[in-house]
Structure formats: structure tokens, C-alpha cells
Amino acid sequence: MSDDLLAWADAALPEILDDIEHLIRLESPSHDHAAIARSADLIAAIGERRIGFAPERIVIDGVSHLRWRIGSPDPEVPRVILLCHHDTVWPVGSLETRPFSIQDGVLRGPGSFDMLPGLVMALHAAGTFADGRGGQLSDAAITLLVTGDEEVGSITSRALIEQEAAGCVAALVLEAAGDDATGRPGALKIGRKGTSMYRVNIAGRAAHAGTEPEKGINSLVELAHQVQAVLEFADPALGTTVVPSVARSGTTTNTVPAHAYFDVDVRALLQDEQRRVDEAFRTLTSVTGATLTVTGGINRPPLETSAATGVFVRARAVGEQLGMELPDAIVVGGASDGNFTAGIGVPTLDGLGAVGGGAHADHEHAYVDEIAPRTALLVALIRDLLQG
User: Fold this and answer.
1) Cβ distance 278 to 197 under 8 Å?
2) 150 an active-site residue?
3) Where does the record place the catalytic residues (predicted)?
4) In this structure, which of 118, 151, 244, 317 has its CB flanked by the most CB atoms within 10 Å?
5) 87 is annotated as an active-site residue
6) Domain layout of the chain by residue ranges
């Protein structure tokens, strides 16, 4: 069966590459809802060919998401959810300077690593179960969910993700793989930091900077105090980072600035740490007499390793049956939709998509020779999980 699965994946590779090319050439930046809608149209057409039927189209606040449910409709049967997103960080027109190409076994273009290959791999893998090649689903089910706003925080799709994942035996996330501690590519991800985002707004009092500065309350001075205060919330030993990122204050050089704000990015490996920092932000107090208002909060909970280790052990065993030696799994700072599924208690394994590098960068790329075996691995892992 392993040889048959690898042979199928090798034979399917030209079609997989063709589907990836079409998606990359279309372009689908997160903030362009019209582009996301066009991308959803194309994915629905590709999926109908590969899976055999059209998806449900779910539009939330203008953002287009797609859902396929394959197999038994019985909610009590074992079910696996495949998580993908079709939005990218690249604006329309990026192809002009980063054209699609396949040269010397390397695939390039906007979204060529994060995460259009993983999405296409999921479509082809799901298709093997829809027609019975991957396994029979008379007493099991697969949900394939393709969302359109992952790169901007999954604001419209979070509830949908959590709803579809609830009760699943596992969530498999088709984000790109990483490099292990030795630099070897292809590592699956068993941990992701949770993300929180804050804005600290400061209301002071304006005054003339030359004639009566003492009558003002300088919001920029308060900002400096508060930046130093929030830096103390970090705990490097536990992997908790607190990074002030964007700041603004003032109107003219001869005016005591009345208003200021700064944004802060927080990452944590543990939910307890995420909650601790959130509580700390709520207790900030002014040093200069300015008024502080904190907005924002926890966006994604961490994908803790306890949620992923069991699925990774099974993936490694399945890989060995296919003749694949998977690198050691890794924990990364970036978040994904797998954070949501882990946060509601669903065993979650991430990084099952493309092998390559350069996410969100000009050198974004994926290795072609890794696509077929990784697609075979995905099919084999789904089968193993559904068989219990």
C-alpha cells in the first residue's frame, strides 16, 4: 500500500504543480476581498475536479471561505479536519517582480511557500478519500476548510475553524514546514507561540513648548515610561516576548504632545503566560498624570506541544512506513490557525505543507521533489488517524 501511495503521488505531481501555478498566478492578498473571492472561485473549481463535488462557500464580512465535508455525515464518527488558507501577504502586482517559475527543482512566486502548495496538496489528498483510493469513509469523515484571512489574524474565520474542529480526532495544518535544529528542512511543527496585540493610548495635555511647557502633560514622555514598563512583562526563560513595534505622538515641534500611542506584539508558548501578560497590561498606571487606555488583547492561544506530540509520533511512524525519515519536530514563534484548534483541545499537527523557505520574503520558494512524498504522507496520516 505504501508503494502504491507513493506511486500515486508521483503520478499526480504534474497536476499538483499545475494547480499551484494557477493559484499563484491569480494572486490573493488578504485585504483585497475581491481578489480573495476570485481565488475562492478558482479553488472551488480545482477542488471540484480533484474531490468530485463543489464546496460550500461561506462569506463572512466580505471574506470568502470554502468547506468540503467528505464521508459519513454522522457527527459521532471519527473525523479529521484539514486546515488551509488561500490568502497571502503579497499585494496584486507582486508577480511583476516575483514571477512564478520552476527552475532547477525550485518553485517560486508569491505564496509559493506560505501556503498555496499545502492547500493544493490537501485538495489532492482529500480527493483520494472522496473516490475511495485513500480509504473508505463509510464510518469516518474529513473536513477540508480553506479560509481567506489567516494572514491578518483570522478575524472572520476563527469561530468557523473552532466550530468545524470541535470533536475531531485531529487537526492537520497545511502550513509550510520548517528547519530543524540542525538546519535540515521539512520539520513538522508541534508548537507555536500564542499571539497577543495591544495598543496603549495616551491622552496628555497640550501646551506651548516654549512659553509654558509646564502647563502641559507630555504624552511622549509618558509613552517612554510605558514602553519601558511593558518590556518588563517579557520572560525570556519561558519564551515570552514583548515587542513594542509602532509608535506615534505629537503634532508640531513647538507643542507639548497631547496624544500618543504605541503598539505591542506579545508572543507566549504557554496559555498561563499569555494570561499573565494580558492582566499586566490592564494594570498599567500613568507616571506623568496622563490618561492611559489599553485596547487589544489575546488573538491566538498557543499551540502547546502537549496538543501535538501524539499526532507527531504517529506521523513519524507513518513516514517510516513510506520510507521517509522525518526530521525532529520544532516549536516556532509564528502562529497559525492550528493555535485555535489546539486551544479548544483538539490534537493538532502543523507544518505538513511545502518544504522550502522564505515565507513573506522576496526569496520565497518550495522544493518540488518534496511535494509528492509529503502529499503521500498526508494521505497515510489521515488514514492512520481515522482508523484509530
Assistant:
1) no
2) yes
3) 87, 150 (proton acceptor)
4) 118
5) yes
6) 2-192+302-386, 194-300
